[in-house]
Amino acid sequence: MADHQNYGDDVDAKYLLRPNTYSSVGVDDDEVFKVHRSPEYLLKLFHAIGDTISEEDLARVYSKVEEENDGKVTIEAFRIAYYDYKHGFVTDESKCC
């Protein structure tokens, strides 16, 4: 039986074809860019998506992101800073970590 009621929460074709990195662990797009997250949450999330981030690296990057964003650390802000750090794109200590 079909339900023809529009609840306003349907995803579009783009999302179905190319879901965000975190959708498999239940994180919505809005959460990625807007919601402040704790270090513990980020550690669990990155481990859940298969990244082997250490607690030391997490603390180093988290504090830098927190400092640069007035105390707000979102998943996306952390991800960008962490992958720059992880892949050696940051060479100046004053810029990150």
Low-confidence stretches: none
Order of helix and strand elements from N to C terminus: HHHHH
Mean pLDDT: 83
Q: What is the tally of helical segments?
A: 5
What form results from the Cα inertia axes?
A: elongated
Output the structural class. Answer: mainly alpha
The helix fraction, in percent, is: 40-55%
| Share of β-strand residues | under 5%
DSSP, total strands: 0
Spatial gap, N to C terminus: 55 Å
**Strand count, sense and closure of the main sheet?**
none
Radius of gyration: 16 Å
Organism: Corethron hystrix
InterPro entries: EF-hand-dom_pair (IPR011992), EFHB_EF-hand_C (IPR057428)
Protein name: EFHB C-terminal EF-hand domain-containing protein
Pfam families: EF-hand_EFHB_C
